Amino acid sequence: MGATMALRGTNQEFGRPYNRRIVLETIRLEAPIARGEIARKVGLTVQTVSTIIRELELQGFVMGSREAPKGRGLPRTNLTLNPEGGFAIGLHVTPIGVSAALVNLAGKIVGTRHHPMSRVSPEATFPVFEALIAEMSALRPDGRMLGIGVAMPGPSDVDSMSFVGPTTLEGWKGIAVGERLAEANVLPVFAGAELGAVALGERLYGAGRDFRAFYYIYFGVGLGGAATVQDGTVLRGVYGNAGEIGHLPLVPGGDPCPCGNRGCLERYVSRDALDRRLKAVDPTATIETALTEHPDVVDAWIAEAAPVLRSAIATIENLFDPETIVIGGLASDALLERLIEGTEPLMHSVAERRGRTTPRLTLSSNGRDAVLRGAAALAISGALSPRFGLLFAGEEERTDRDPIMTGPAKKEVAA
Description:
With 415 residues, the chain is α/β, with parallel strands linked by helices. The chain contains twelve helices and twelve strands. The strands form three sheets. It has a five-stranded mixed β-sheet with strand order 5-4-3-6-7, sandwiched between helices. Strands 10-9-8-11-12 form a five-stranded mixed β-sheet, with helices on both faces. Strand 3 and strand 4 form a beta hairpin. The two termini are 32 Å apart.
């Protein structure tokens, strides 16, 4: 596993809620792990850690299992998260509909649902949110629900890029998604950009666990990206739009883009780009069946898109120097693998280090559900993160905000 940020507890009495979250976070990141190891990592006494572990076991957040005997003395007990100890609902809004998932504490998806929509307007979407939240909650009616995470497409609040064209959400300017959803729900709500959510989900539950810093290329209706920095957090930028590589103008005099420029990357590399080429041949064609029903169109698209993506990869590597670039999104692994193969040979960049053992490109292990898992991770992190989490918090702590969130929690989590 990649390097993680040092977590340190406090032996002051007022820090007990914080210590509980520190211990829980350490188990989440390092499991299976014994009490003594936790104590060493967080700087607390074994007695303090043991007391916290007993509380977490009683509340159903963690569980322990003894190792096989290896000689004299009692074998140690290794601690892991109890997957059924908590759940979060992830919502993902796209220009083609809304998806939802129920995700457990270990990041496993319990169930999903996609609601296609011809026009994703706020008036039509909020009732869909409520129906999907109810449907996901019903999958674990007695489960502890930690919160609701909502992933919204970006870039945020850029008139020429956020509200115009087939890869954006028209009519959403000025809509406070998190606040509006929180008013109608008992659970805390956390809203964030889909790029930050997908990178967070990949870091916590996917291929990103193996890297200290990686860049995520998200193949969605449009194209975006997100960089994680050395401590595993997502680089967001001043206005939350860092990583919006879809509007890099890489093809001089290329296809016009709704943003007003020409030759933008996502006009060639995105679900919308492939869909436009498919529809020109067969109005009923879908990306899901393109490889089998229209392989010639896919081949022609890759021949056009891969060189543009190859240039973008060299740009990303030179700017961010990541350990790897993870690629995933709203396409099958087979299609993304074909696209990755098409970029070979990659261009020269700072990534060409002597002795390199990691691949320059890595296929996401979260598949098509990457954003949904990431949206739920917004809520799980909002409840569990050591510095900002709401779980176990006293009233004086509940004013803190997690910097990756754009919507504050409004209501308390039911214990």
